[in-house]
């Protein structure tokens, strides 16, 4: 996983601005709520959305973005 993130950072030409540790720390601030069979993401910080977009990972569904 580390190397995959490292490659994404390099491909996005963000190596001088982000490290793998930075990305993991930012993404760790996203919360997933599970209630029975229902799952939802809460509190997706705008910085995480920006990193997600810049890296092209598209992890978060657009309906959850602000």
Structural description of this entry:
- There is one protein chain.
- The protein has helices at 2-11, 20-27, 46-55; strands spanning 31-35, 38-42.
- The protein has one domain (2-64).
- The chain has a two-stranded antiparallel ribbon.
- It has 3 helices and 2 strands; from the N terminus they run H-H-E-E-H.
- The mean pLDDT is 87.
- The protein has 66 residues and is of the alpha+beta class.
- It starts with a helix and ends in an 11-residue tail after the last helix.
What is the structural class? alpha+beta
Helix content: 40-55%
Helix-strand topology string: HHEEH
- Give the distance, in angstroms, between the N- and C-terminal Cα atoms: 27 Å
Radius of gyration (CA) equals 13 Å
Number of strands: 2
User: What does the largest sheet look like?
Assistant: 2 strands, antiparallel
What would you call the shape? elongated
Q: Count of DSSP helices?
A: 3
Whole-number tally of structural domains? 1
Global mean pLDDT: 87
What proportion of the residues form beta strands (DSSP E)? 15-25%
Low-confidence stretches: none
Question: Looking across the biggest beta sheet, what order are the strands in?
Answer: 1-2
Keywords:
66 residues; alpha+beta; 3 helices; elongated; two-stranded antiparallel ribbon; 2 strands
Question: In a nutshell, what does this entry contain?
Answer:
With 66 residues, the protein is of the alpha+beta class. Helix content is 42%, strand content 15%. The longest helix is centred in the N-terminal third of the chain and has 10 residues, at 2-11.
